[in-house]
Amino acid sequence: MNEVEVVVAHSERATLRVGDVFLKVDGDQTRIDAEAEVMSLVPVPTPRILWRKPSVLALAALPGTTLGRLGGPSTGSPAAWAAAGAAIRKLHEAPLPSRTGQAGRSAAALAAELDRECASLVANGVLPADLVTRNRQVAEAALRPWTPAFTHGDLQIAHVFVDGDEVTGIIDWSEAGQGDALHDLATFTLGHERHLDDVIAGYGIDVDLDVIRAWWSLRSLLIVRWLAEHGFDPFAPGCEVDVLRARMSDRAGG
Fold first, then answer.
1. Total Cβ atoms within 10 A of residue 117
2. From CA 120, how far away is CA 114, in angstroms rounded?
3. Distance (Å) of CA 240 to CA 22, 23, 188, 190, 221
């Protein structure tokens, strides 16, 4: 008999694995509906939808493994990382969906949210003021005009599966929609900076590396408190707080 594995769970949603089936349970039915719709539009491999009922989306498991996880060792050859970059480029060049995704928030809205979050992090002693101030400065480069692309919106490294040097699928499309392409690239390489060159080589066009670093800072600042409040540890080695600390080293180095 297959055991039930809790892949991820928090107050908003949970993903369970039973054998070769993943069950996504979400209290917001609109997110499930949006994810199923987007998966029918994307030009990259996705899990096969087995069935969909209120609050649950059942997906077939993908072959292969992820390239790693945030805070853990990365796996895969440079060619596998480049293949992921090529798949991301293919997504970004697809016809735009109708909805705005997580990566599509306006610069003004992001700036306001970022300022509130930075103030809270310092006032509550979650992070040192100098660390927050430096990363808020770095994050400013992400708050600029951008051309809408078809974005995943939450393209964590654990959401991309590969088998050898081939991408076999990308999962978790609930945040997908029109957005900033560099948000996806930054999310995918967060905490795995040494693979950025391989990803960009596969992506195939020059990108602004300062904006990618800015997204590393912005994303980390916005999510540290949420992670801590939902049972995750952003202070673990290689995770969000270490990403923020790396930007202090950037300044010290030059």
1. 20
2. 10
3. 27, 27, 13, 8, 8
- The model carries a pTM of 0.92
Residue found by looking up tokens 């895969």 in the block: 76
Burial of 79 by CB count in 10 Å (0-12 exposed, 13-18 middle, 19+ buried)?
Answer: middle
How many domains are contained in the chain? Answer: 1
Residue 20 within a domain: no
In a domain, 10, yes or no: no
Do the beta carbons of residue 127 and residue 135 sit within 8 Å? no
Q: What CATH number does the domain containing 216 carry?
A: 3.90.1200.10
Question: Is 119 domain-assigned?
Answer: yes
- Length of the chain equals 254
Q: What is the pLDDT along the chain (254 residues), one digit of tens a residue?
A: 578 888 777 777 888 888 899 899 988 888 888 889 999 999 999 999 999 988 899 999 989 888 888 888 887 899 999 999 999 999 999 999 999 988 899 999 999 999 999 999 999 999 999 999 999 999 999 999 999 999 999 999 988 999 999 999 999 898 999 999 999 999 999 999 999 999 999 999 999 999 999 999 999 999 999 999 888 899 999 999 999 999 987 754 44
For 60, 75, 83, 85, 123, the CA distances from 195, given in Å and listed in that order, are 29, 10, 12, 10, 35
Q: Is residue 41 part of a domain?
A: no
Residue ranges making up the domain that contains 93? 63-253
